[in-house]
Structure formats: structure tokens, C-alpha cells
Amino acid sequence: QVQVVESGGGLVQAGGSLRLSCTTSGSIFSINAMDWYRQAPGKQRELVARITSGGYTNYADSVKGRFTISRDNAKNTVYLQMNNLKPEDTAVYYCNADIVGLHYWGQGTQVTVSS
Residues 48-64: pLDDT tens digits? Predict the structure, then answer.
């Protein structure tokens, strides 16, 4: 089994910061990429940040310059540092592990940004 667990969500006022963590465990042979998605009510999940096995990062235009994805391989953990949060960032944030073409999703962590 592959287990993906997110943490770090919460309530924050506009302009504040949060750091989300995603820890993976289980039988992992190779990870192609680790992604952060978010889903607001009534919306489909959208990719907000990605880091590949080669260290390449990608961000949605809406979060570029505010969010930073990073990893700590020794801890099997990926982080999403979110700065200057806006109300439109309110969503459930999901960590996704792309493992040999298969996607493993965490349960999600709620981020609510008040104005």
C-alpha cells in the first residue's frame, strides 16, 4: 500500500501564510512527481504546484510568486509554502503522488482564507 497524508491546513486571514506538509509511506519504487491540487466547492480539482523527480517545479499562474513547493527526501515529505494568501485560495488541498503513472491521493487538508 501507498499512504499519503497531508497536514498543515487551517484558518488564516488574507495576507497570512501556511505551510502544508505531505508525507508518503508504503511500497514506493519510484515517484515521478509530487503534486499539490486544490478543490473548491463546486469546482474540479486543479493543479497548483508540482515537483518532479528531477527537481523541476511548476505552478499555476494564480499562485506563482506566492506558493513554493519543496521536498525533503530524507523525511519522505513534500511541502507547500503558501504566502500572501487570498480568499480565492480557500479550498481543500490534496497531495498527489504520481508513482509510475498511478495517482495516490491523500485525504486533503482544509485551507480557509478570510478577508
Answer: 999 998 999 999 999 99
